[in-house]
Specification:
- It is a single chain.
- About 10% of the residues have low confidence.
- It contains 6 helices and no strands.
- It is mostly helical.
- The two termini are about 35 Å apart.
- It folds into 2 domains: about 35 residues, no CATH class; about 60 residues, no CATH class.
- The radius of gyration is 19 Å and the shape is elongated.
Length: about 110
């Protein structure tokens, strides 16, 4: 079964165990996790993912963190806060990563 679903055997075992203990709904869906609230609204996160998976701008081979940050800021989906006025405008990627550290984009 693990090969057919392209998952590890431990995943199959854990899912089966959760099904037996908690039922099908909890076995197939993740529980909410403790921790910090998400930085982006679900709609913004979906837009970011869709943008990152789309064709990059003309003249670019791929989306960069800088381009994605610029796109979200230009559409006013996020506000880019300046932590330190000494940063040059070209350092938006650093600023973006400081305020959205949970986003791991290449």
């Amino acid at each position: 079964m693990a090969d057919m679903l392209m998952v590890g055997e431990s995943t199959v075992h854990r899912t089966r165990q959760r099904y037996l203990e908690e039922g099908v709904e909890l076995a197939l869906n993740e529980r909410s996790r403790k921790g910090r609230d998400k930085k982006l609204a679900p709609e913004t996160e979906a837009f970011l993912i869709a943008t990152a998976c789309s064709t990059p701008p003309t003249g670019r081979e791929s989306w960069t963190m800088q381009l994605l940050a610029d796109r979200l800021v230009s559409l006013e989906l996020i506000k880019l806060k300046l932590m330190d006025w000494r940063f040059a405008a070209s350092d938006a990627r650093v600023k973006f990563q400081r305020f959205y550290p949970d986003l791991h984009l290449s």
